[in-house]
Amino acid sequence: MTRKQKHPKQPAPEVERPLPQSAEFVLDQEGQPVAVQIHLENWQALLRRLEDLEDLELVEALLPTLRTHPQEAGSLRWKNVRSREVNWEKEQEKGDDEMVRQAIDALAWEHRPPQSRLLDVRGVEMPPGVEVRRLRVGQSRIVYAIHEAENWIQVLKIRHRPPYDQQDLEAMAAVGGKASHE
User: Which of 57, 112, 138, 145 is a Cys-bridge partner for 96, taking CB atoms 3.0 to 4.6 Å apart?
Assistant: First the structure.
């Protein structure tokens, strides 16, 4: 008599949802998405699609960089920057991630919002016509570069800054430090 062999459970097939018509993925040689071009009216639909995938690496790969072109007003181009330190879902508070997305969306139209600050990048070699700015959104900070000559914006880093808790405040007071809530 032979034993019945157990077959490993097969995961349920994933249901493919169509991407918006104006979205176009660019794949690398291994078939991994490295960029996507999408019009602004479909941007929220793409973000919902990426969240549905529950693939943090893919979301991190597609969210950090946007590019705007005057001849294609209202379009974004996200580039792969996996080497950047982007910690999108692990550190973001529930309300901040939506505010960050809206702020990045708004950068396509307003490159220098009044609440953004020019960063001092002396000592760092920058190409002419490139300006690095920081934008505060809730507890998050968006650091981005404006490339004037090519008319595009590059989001360099999105950082979440958690508020101080009581232990932090007590520890800082013990050493004479000062806590500030930006």
Answer: 138
Mind listing the pLDDT tens digit for each residue in 103-141?
A: 888 887 788 888 888 887 777 777 788 888 888 888 788
Is 169 among the domain residues?
yes
How much of the chain is helix, strand and coil, in % rounded to 5? 30, 25, 45
Q: Containing domain of residue 147, as a range?
A: 24-174
Q: Where are the beta strands (DSSP E) in the chain?
A: 24-27, 33-39, 75-79, 116-118, 130-137, 140-147, 152-160
Size of the chain in residues: 182
CA distance linking residue 144 with residue 132, whole number of Å? 6
Amino acid at 41: E
Rounded Cα–Cα distance for residues 36 and 16 (Å): 17
The tokens of 173 are what?
A: 């007071």
Would residue 163 count as lying in a domain?
Answer: yes
